[in-house]
Amino acid sequence: MPYHCCSHYINSNTSCDGLDTNFYSTVNPEPSIDTQPIADQTVCLDGTLQDLTVTYIDGVGVPEYQWYQSTECTADPNNAILLSGETTSSYTPLTDQVGILYYFAELTFLEGGCGSIVSECARVEVVADPLATITTPSVSEICDGGEIDDLVVTYTGGVGTPTYQWYDASTGQAIGGATLDTYNPGILVEGSYGYYYVEISFNDNPDNGCDLATSQTVSFEVVADPVLTDLLVTQTVCLGSPVTALEVEASGGAGTTYGYQWYDASTNQPIDGETLDTFTPSTSAVGTFNYYVIVTTDASGCETQSTTSEVIVVPVPSIDTQPIADQTVCLDGTVQDLTVTYIDGVGVPEYQWYQSTECTADPNNAILLSGETTSSYTPLTDQVGVLYYFAELTFLEGGCGSIVSECAKVEVVADPLATITIPSVSEICDGGEIDDLVVTYTGGVGTPTYQWYYSMDGDPFQAVGSDLSLHIILVF
User: Fold this and answer.
1) Which of 16, 300, 314, 344 is 20 to 30 Å from the Cα of 327, by its Cα?
2) Cβ atoms 413, 300 nearer than 8 A
3) Which domain holds residue 108?
């Protein structure tokens, strides 16, 4: 704003008035920054920054410029580094070192006593070029039909918003639609190999200087499922008897640990608690039962079902036909065969006949009859007396053990001996009678029949029909 004033001069000696003179003075506002430098920029190493530029208003004359650099936003020339030669209104910071630096300009007005002014700080961050890293899958092998965990890429460095593109490293071809920070190839088949890498770019600012980041290549192999040995095809056992444990051996596949689960094949339901490589089926019920095992590993898709094993549980054996309970014959007589038959059990048993003087049916308290090893036995009758016989049937298969028959009593008696009670007199007169002739006997078996005989002189005898002397034959 211009100001006007006057000066009036009077000569004291002459008392003459002088001429008036006008003086003018212009006072401007203090200078200030009109355009501040860009407040914040981030670029990759060796990237291109926008120029830092300042403009001003007011003040007197054209100022001198000086740019400064500091590690903190101080905007104080006394606490900053003077950038030699940077004396214009614009400055382009270097981007050859990673880090954060601050820049500001000082404008010095040499005229009008306007002094100096400084701009605000301009923050410039230089970051490293992006580095991409794929999280390696937890396993390097999976089985046929398995899946891997998502491949996940992370990065450090770079500026702006990344874009992703996954590649099949075996062909170098981009995978269509694989443009996220994760990728999963899905279900894979035996014999294939997975080789993958990803590229990350920061294209939202072409001048940011960020190089294309290419990750490492990750790989895994798809192998065959585990191979299992065949289970025991079938076995038949008696109720409650021990059974041969089912065993499986696994090999191949992927992963480090095999897991087992046994199943009831009739329901395809897992058997609770049966998670080892061996399994002993129950034999507490009669019937036919089938089992299998599924073996897995800690790698995806590794699962194999075994062959099926049949377990037949039959009732314990029992005697179906017992030997004849009681027979009595005379010395050297013929007895009926003692025969046993059985039902149930497993296989054909071994037979052994025993003899004892008491009906014990206990092999430990009886005499083993050597050579008598069939289902029938004919006792000897060459000695008078009472003996007992029984058979032991031993089943060598299926854990069925031994069973014994009931006792068979065989009594051998002496041949019959007949005795006539002699009359009290040996002579009588003509027309007289003697007392009855009475016969008694010992030995023999069963109910006797009688036939009396006579003879005139003792030989030959004829059937009774006269009153001559008599002879009797007892027939049993």
Assistant:
1) 344
2) no
3) 32-127
357 located within any domain: yes
Q: Which residue has the tokens 């049916």?
A: 361
Q: Is the peptide bond before 460 cis (omega within 30 degrees of 0)?
A: yes
**What b/e sequence results for 282-321 when a residue is b if at least 16 CB atoms lie within 10 Å of its CB, and e otherwise?**
ebeeeeebbbbbbbbbebbbbbbebeebebbbbebbebee
User: pTM of the prediction?
Assistant: 0.66
pLDDT digits (tens, 9 = 90+) for 168-211: 998 999 999 999 999 998 887 887 788 999 999 998 777 888 99
- Rounded distance, CA 264 to CA 289, Å? 8
Measured on CA atoms in the order 322, 328, 331, 335, is the torsion positive or negative?
Answer: negative
Bond before 317 cis per omega within 30 degrees: no
The whole-angstrom separation of Cα 421 and Cα 438 is 5
Pairing of strands 55-57, 90-91: unpaired
Element (H, E) at 399: none
pLDDT tens track for 271-321: 999 999 999 999 999 999 999 999 999 888 999 999 999 999 999 999 999
Q: Which two tokens stand for residue 18?
A: 């002088």
Specify the 3-state DSSP secondary structure of 345: coil
Among 397, 413, 429, the domain-final residue is 413
* C-alpha span between 452 and 439 (Å, rounded): 10
Which residue's entry shows tokens 């700080």?
Answer: 121
Q: Which of 290, 291, 259 is nearest to 276 (CA)?
A: 259
pLDDT of residue 476: 54
Cβ(129)–Cβ(96) below 8 Å: no
Element (H, E) at 352: strand 350-356
Query: What is the DSSP secondary structure assignment for residue 401, as one 8-state letter?
Result: E
Distance CA 436, CA 90 (A): 171
Q: How many structural domains compose the chain?
A: 5
Alpha-carbon distance of 434 to 67, in angstroms, equals 177
Spatial distance between the Cα atoms of 407 and 391, rounded to a whole number of angstroms: 8
DSSP helix/strand/coil, 442 = strand
In this structure, the answer to whether residues 89 and 51 fall within a common structural domain is yes
